């Protein structure tokens, strides 16, 4: 993984898996990283593989390791900042010499190296890893978790001269680095085209997923009514639900501003759940405060499991207004719960909504269009929900995991002979 544990999102809370260090500091992680979840699902359907998640961590003073109940092993490696490149394009980025050293040692055996990119593959740390793997016979699978853009796709904007140089430099080193990959997976149709601008090898369309036996519609209207009662939502209101990390690309602050523009009307309830760094959480809380005081909104703490499912059950429409998404899984859960979706046209789920004539898509930064779509819902015209059977075929974890296993077995045959050997 290209980033450390999410310490900043939990406001000093002790990680679920933690180690006490000398001096009182704690190192650890929360086992909700996508690679932990994907590994758990892979191990459910096959015994062929062991799955390890390797993560750099500024807090780690040595390598820490823990095996989860799912069978996934999660390791934290000491990390530091490193200057990549030369002046005037030099920049500092996370690095982990210990992780790279351990990877070289592991790659001498029978392994598949999966590099997970949360912001595409424009990462100096991954470029360094790919260079290290050039002389090692091991398959490399790169899996994007965000909305990848080729560097030259950004060059048309208005930038400082140095930025143009950076984008040109990125184009060449990204293209050179990705040549080492055996396969790259993307989710959204847009990003598949962007990958082709810098990579000529094998590209697969693979997404993430959710458990459709858990994420399901409420069994009866009374379940929905009870979920609303617990949240203090008054009768006769259309409930709009959004969730995610409090980061700018999610545009949750913009969503709150649009709802404030609805004036004094009292027929809606805006429900937002998630967490983030303190300054962003404080800003969002401030924007929602006037609506919350009039019992037309609630900023809900980060939650998961049945508590999160209750939020979906309480809602009439799920809202996703990000500028950049790979999936997102939050929309997949809405589809599994039978909730109509209002979304910006980004991510793989937006492709699915278009393909099945479901949901309502609004431009990424056309806030007037957001308001018009919300007012349309309030007038009684909800977006059509996606067929749950179609969503299950596309996003249920066993189906998703099988797609990854198919790729892994192909890589095994390519490098190690028959997939059932060893």
How would you explain this protein's 3D organization?
- The chain is α/β, with parallel strands linked by helices and 422 residues long.
- The chain contains 14 helices and 17 strands.
- It folds into two domains: 7-209 and 398-416, Rossmann fold, CATH 3.40.50; 221-387, Glycogen Phosphorylase B (Rossmann fold, 3-Layer(aba) Sandwich).
- The strands form five sheets. The chain has a six-stranded parallel beta sheet with strand order 14-13-12-15-16-17, sandwiched between helices. The chain has a four-stranded parallel beta sheet with strand order 8-9-10-11, covered by helices on one side.
- The protein is globular.
- It starts with 16 loop residues before the first strand and ends in a 6-residue tail after the last helix.
Concise description?
With 422 residues, the chain is α/β, with parallel strands linked by helices.
How are the SSEs placed, and which strands pair?
Elements: E1 17-20, E2 26-29, H1 34-45, E3 52-57, E4 64-67, E5 73-78, E6 80-84, E7 91-95, H2 97-106, E8 113-121, H3 124-132, E9 140-144, H4 161-178, E10 183-186, H5 189-196, E11 202-205, H6 221-231, E12 238-245, H7 252-260, E13 268-275, H8 278-293, E14 297-301, H9 305-314, E15 317-320, H10 329-336, E16 341-343, H11 348-355, E17 360-361, H12 367-378, H13 388-395, H14 397-416
Parallel strand pairs: 3-5, 8-9, 9-10, 10-11, 12-13, 12-15, 13-14, 15-16, 16-17
Antiparallel strand pairs: 1-2, 4-5, 6-7
Helix pairs in contact: 1-14, 3-4, 6-9, 7-8, 7-12, 13-14
């Amino acid at each position: 993984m290209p980033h450390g544990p999410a310490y900043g999102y939990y406001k000093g809370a002790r990680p679920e898996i933690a180690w006490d260090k000398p001096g009182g500091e704690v190192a650890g992680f929360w086992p909700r990283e996508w690679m932990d979840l994907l590994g758990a699902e892979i191990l459910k359907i096959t015994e062929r593989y062991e799955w390890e998640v390797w993560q750099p961590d500024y807090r780690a003073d040595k390598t820490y390791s823990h095996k989860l109940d799912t069978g996934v092993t999660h390791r934290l490696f000491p990390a530091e900042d490193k200057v990549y490149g030369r002046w005037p394009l030099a920049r500092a980025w996370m690095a982990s010499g210990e992780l790279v050293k351990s990877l070289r040692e592991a790659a001498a055996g029978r392994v598949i190296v999966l590099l997970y990119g949360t912001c595409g593959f424009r990462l100096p740390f991954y470029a360094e890893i790919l260079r290290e793997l050039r002389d090692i016979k091991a398959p490399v699978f790169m899996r994007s978790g965000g909305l990848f853009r080729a560097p030259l796709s950004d060059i048309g904007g208005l930038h400082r001269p140095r930025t143009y140089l950076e984008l040109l430099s990125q184009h060449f080193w990204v293209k050179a680095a990705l040549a080492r990959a055996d396969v790259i997976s993307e989710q959204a149709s847009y990003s598949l085209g962007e990958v082709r601008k810098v990579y000529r090898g094998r590209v697969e369309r693979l997404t993430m997923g959710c458990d459709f036996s858990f994420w399901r519609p409420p069994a009866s209207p009374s379940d929905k009514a009870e979920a609303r009662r617990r949240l203090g939502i008054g009768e006769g209101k259309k409930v709009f639900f959004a969730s995610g990390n409090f980061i700018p690309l999610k545009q949750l602050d913009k969503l709150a501003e649009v709802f404030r523009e609805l004036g004094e009307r009292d027929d809606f309830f805006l429900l937002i759940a998630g967490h983030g760094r303190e300054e962003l959480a404080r800003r969002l809380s401030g924007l929602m405060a006037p609506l919350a005081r009039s019992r037309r909104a609630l900023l809900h703490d980060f939650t998961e499991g049945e508590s999160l499912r209750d939020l979906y059950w309480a809602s009439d429409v799920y809202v996703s207004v990000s500028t950049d998404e790979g999936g997102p899984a939050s929309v997949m859960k809405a589809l599994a719960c039978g909730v109509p979706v209002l979304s910006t046209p980004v991510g793989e789920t937006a492709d699915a909504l278009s393909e099945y004539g479901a949901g309502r898509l609004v431009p990424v930064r056309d806030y007037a269009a957001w308001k018009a779509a919300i007012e349309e819902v309030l007038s009684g015209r909800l977006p059509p929900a996606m067929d749950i059977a179609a969503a299950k075929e596309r996003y249920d974890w066993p189906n998703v995991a099988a797609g990854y296993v198919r790729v892994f077995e192909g890589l095994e045959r390519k490098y190690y002979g028959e997939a059932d050997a060893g």
